[in-house]
Amino acid sequence: MDTNRLSKEELTYELRIRGLAAESTVDEMRRKIRPLLRLEREGKAMLPVYETSTAEDLDICKGKINALEALITELDETASEHELRKIDTGLQHVTNRVNRVRPEDSNTEAWQLKRQLADKCAELWALCEERDPKVKQEVEETSSRPSGNMIELDRFGKILTAIRVQVAYITGDRGSPVARQLEDRLADLLSRLTLLSTEDEEEENVRLGYLEESMECLQEFGRRMTSGTAGKVERIDPCNEPVIKKIQVPLKDWGIKFSGDDQSVHAFLEAIEEMKSARNASDADLFNSAFDLFSGRALIWLKAIRRETSSWEEIVQEMRNEFEPLDYTERLWEEIRSRTQGEDEKIGFYVSVMRNYFHRLPQKPTENEVLRIVLRNLHPYYLERLGLQKISSLAELVEKGRRIEDNRWRIQMYRPPPLKKTL
């Protein structure tokens, strides 16, 4: 987002949603917000949740959209770079602003107005490429859309083509890794929408909800791309050159699905956390592609609550509320207290198993309580040898337990000396 193209009111809003007070002059506000935007692009800061005044914000957005539409309809081949950047920044700002508005009830006039304004933003992105000959030519050369229910998917196609143009505009190279990554992801989202062309009336509300959320997801990718946050930035090598670190495997290919049928919520979440680290994914990636991680009745549940959440953390909390047994904590504590060390189970493995048990508890016990339970459940062989020793941590327990294992191994490997033949 080009802060030099934002008005004073828009700068005030961008600062306010980040919890900061507006300065007296436009220049001071621009200096204040630039480092914040840079930190957000680098993934070092997150935009906080901000409660807006629904009626006031929608009214302001409506006025800005009307003004942008007038500017876009006047675009021709003589349009300057300044005019194009001003329109681009204005559309980014108002699209983000509309999406942040959260009416309390989906049946209210405010919610209907929000949807109308969101649709209008999508139309304006498409209108940009229609009115600017350079953009129009670029789209005609590169745009392609999958077959399917194009009446319902037309607005998504417009968003896709508009964002593709923005990719080329920002990167300056349509063949760059950033451009290819974004285009592949957007094309995948769009193609999956064609699978929702069902005539089952009972599925209609779920389908429409998914379409709406997919549009918001597409717009989010567009905003991330135009603000330069298409990937994570990491510094490497002695030169300290920033490189884009992409997700190596899409979420749909992780092989992890939660169906909600006799499946452990915590086992699923642990697998997700492990894959998130291994595949270089973020919570934002999990939230945007959450539909790839659910199936069956759990997928139907997710489609129903997705619009009420704004982060992966909120989805996880709702998931626990819905799918965890009511007596989950009590049953887990029973498992913990009854889990003793096996006859041939090594101390390191046993402690790791117990750590995982304690990690699943909603409220973590103290280190001393964990240590007390683990010590009590040790195999008698270890208890006999550790009973008189002072142990203050699990790490110390594992260290001393391994010494005992080493001694036992040496004892087992002992062989008496061969008998010497006497002369």
TrEMBL record:
<protein>
    <submittedName>
        <fullName>Retrotransposon gag domain-containing protein</fullName>
    </submittedName>
</protein>
<dbReference type="InterPro" id="IPR005162">
    <property type="entry name" value="Retrotrans_gag_dom"/>
</dbReference>
<dbReference type="Pfam" id="PF03732">
    <property type="entry name" value="Retrotrans_gag"/>
</dbReference>
<feature type="domain" description="Retrotransposon gag">
    <location>
        <begin position="293"/>
        <end position="376"/>
    </location>
</feature>
